[in-house]
Queue: 4 jobs
Job 1
Amino acid sequence: MTFTFFSALFLACSVLLCYLLPARACRLRPYLLLALSFVFLLHFYPKAIPGVLGVSILIWAFGLFSRKGAVHARHDFSSAIGILLLTILLALYKILISHPTLFHAGGPLFPLAPAAKLLTAQIGISYYLFQGIAYLADVRTGRVRPERNFFFLLLYLSFFPRFVSGPIERPSAFLGQLTARRTVRLIRPDDDFPEGGRLSAALSAITVGWFMKIFLADRLSAYTTAVFASPKERSGALLLICSLLYTVQLYCDFAGYSSVAVGTAQLFGIRLTQNFHAPYLSAGSSEFWRRWHISLSSWLRDYIYIPLGGSRNGLGKKIRNTFAVFLVCGLWHGIGSGFLVWGLLHAAFASLESALKGKIHLPLVLRRILTFCYVSAAWIFFGTKNVRTAVTYFAGILAPSGWSAQAGWALQALRQNTAGTAGLGSALHAEFVQFGFTESPVILISLGIVLMIAADAVSYRRGKPFAELAASLPFPARYLFLALAWLILLIFGSYGAGYRASSFLYSQF
């Protein structure tokens, strides 16, 4: 979902239409959701419609052929050919967005320019192609039956709340919800939402998501975008702080979108994967990837890691399979040196953790700090997108000259009887104020980060996403929380000229 006046009006009208359907007409709900999804695409991404339809027909046909070609689908090549074609299509798209000059006149891939032009319009292609690969793989292994109803498969690939940036849904989980004949209640509690009802759960997830996006992620992007694009001649303090802010920004941006998608889908009786669960409180690489982009990490586990052998057959092959998984993970984000190194760094961390398991015992707090530090350091390669800029960034953080200037300003402030935090403020004042870190935004950013940490700590301890915990509050407290959150957003949200609430970091992948 995006955040515009049209999207808000569209969502309200869509919910109204869905719940105006008679209870006996629940079998028509999937067709209404499909129609609404294409209205959404027609308004926001009209150029994507031909590609979505073409890919959906391809996936549907290969799924049916795989069952007709053999008694057991795994003995047939139809689904394998379909998976190969989808993989090639995804690779072409990644090459195109990372190296567009290859498709220009005189470039080696110029003959593919017409196809490249069509691919550029395919917003969300990484997500629905991965869903298509999962569907064909599950048909091949017999985990799901081929979907004979083309419109159900088309809805699985194009459902509008998750279309732009996921989550990546499993075919059995999503398609099973379309065929289940059940009445969906909006306000009254039911088996799915026994405490506050579906509306409370959905509003809580949407509110938490937009709070993360508008209050924190978009506010931080004003600083991190400029620094990551040009880290030269920045002080070590500014580079270090912006790298940590980027770590927060990326989480709030993507987790915020995922929460909005989950909440919006709940309004229509569809459960989506909870994509994040307090990842920065993880005490190790394996735990981090169980909590970060859960739908992608579980997809990589089930369709690459386990088929390669997983952790069977010794540590050496486990490390090999780990590197293969993170190589794919890095390239899925982009065909660039920064993404490649980012993926390989995570593979190295995960392999080191496997090799040292049971040999070194560190306190939980220290393991959490170490995990957060290496994840934040790896994000620098992710944010700069290429190794050369990332090396410049790290060199700026480690350069003594940048820190000596800060130390000089601090000493000067102390000599002028400026004590404690005021001395530090004076030391950082010149560059930071010039860059836009004035008192008001610093207070709001600090408040947002404190709220994020507190919410994640509660979520981690209770074992549920914070939005679900908020939805289970008693009636007065629940709606007081929602009203207060939206009041803060209206007063302190990131708005203004040039602001685009519909732009999400992970929509580019």
Note: Residues 29-179 form one domain.
Job 2
Amino acid sequence: MRTLCASTLIGEFFVIGFAGLVAMKDDGLSTGTVWAVSGTAMLLSVVLCGVITRPGGVQLGWLFQAGLLASGFVVPVMFVLGLVFGALWWASVHFGRKIDEAKARFAAEAEAS
């Protein structure tokens, strides 16, 4: 699960950076504000890669997905990208758990024989 979820979060790292570039075009936002928020979100996406397997890591990932979706109020295309990455997050968690279960089952079978 860790690999799939981390891949999704790293993809979001780049998307957030590009969204920051788009948000800089908004006259109502200062460059410092845009990069403080974008930079914090980018850092959070990398930190989440490391804590994804710890208790509450997946739930923090879901909160991150909600924040990414909410960023659509500033950069409207983020509504679409937030939905796409939310679906990727769900798939990463869902299929990642199935892969982890299969690996554990194969390891137990190999150990037993």
Note: The CA atoms of residues 23 and 29 lie 8 Å apart.
Job 3
Amino acid sequence: MSIAIDLSGKVTLITGASQGIGAQMARTFHRAGATIIINHPDILATRADAEQLAAQLNSLRGGSVHVSAADVSQAESVQRMMQEARQRFGGIDFLINNAAILRDRTMAKMSPDEWKSVIDVNLGGVFHGCKYGLEIMRDNGAIVSMGSIAAIQGFFGQANYAAAKAGVQAMMRVVAREAARRGIRANAIAPGVIDTSMAATIPEGARAEMMKNIPLARFGLTEEVATVALFLCSPLASYVSGQTLEVNGGWRG
């Protein structure tokens, strides 16, 4: 007997969805029937990437994907994006807080700007998404925010990133309590090393050392993270809230 996840009639907003894991989440939720709002920060090639992805998905199901530019580190920008979603779709059912940046450097060499920029996007962006997203989210919805294995492992040179991701995972436990009265669930996903353009910047020596810690002996695929997000937003996870689900190939170290 097969079990299908059908999100027809549901609206999913995904931040940082122009590439990588976010883009794969857009494809996965779209395949499950959801209407998708692809957020991008409108820097470098993100607008073009988001519009290209939207065009591909809309060619499969016309009018099912909308592109929305917003810098998640800015409260006003996120609030404006959410109000546009309310006007266009009447609200949202699922929020995926995926947007994140890296500014790796040892603490001794990390500038205050490098610290602040990562905290503002990776942690502040999740706060803004949840705060203003809950204002337009329909009851019995779900929030999934991206944590990281870095929150547990404390990788060298990632004081800003690790602190932000640990904060995200803690924040979801709070949101799960505060939003429960409306039937809204909140969870985090903590991926290990996923095979994306961001992971491609890891030096080869560091990649080899990381691989030694992964029992499955490979880096993860974006699809393997996206399907976990889909599960967490589906009725199959109706009693899962306030959790951090690790998707890391069994990494313990």
Note: The chain is about 45% helix and 15% strand.
Job 4
Amino acid sequence: MRVRAAVTLLTLGLLASGCSLQERTDRDPLESSDSNRRQVIRSEGVASLPVFSLAVRSGDLIFLSGQLGAIPGVSPPQVVEGGIEAETRQTMENMIAVLDAAGATLEDLLKCTVFLADIADYEAMNAVYAEYFTSDPPARAALAGSGLALGALVEVDCIAAAPEGI
């Protein structure tokens, strides 16, 4: 009941202050079409499932779905053997392939989130991850989660800046 009262008071306050909804005039309607706002990125060989896109570009940003250390070209998807180091390396290579399909590189990454099946793998994952960034790595968070897809030890999702002209 308190939430409803708070929403009502907020709404009344906005109305009393003269706030109203107005049509946006700062966008060209032709530029905001779905084809310009959302572009699905596909990459040959990188394992994916039909329930998500490998990446989606919207405006100046590219959103990569969580990448695993799945072996390219293997169907159904299968995670590479060899432990956290091998999985992290393959995950990074899969990210590179998806970024390449979007016309981007690792240098275009802005933010990554690393999911680990076991936080004890943090240092080993970090050692491999660091090999891919020789200068100024993207912002990043890392956390442990149980039950990653395909029994994976690591999964990484990212946001990248879309290069100009692409």
Note: The chain has four helices and six strands.
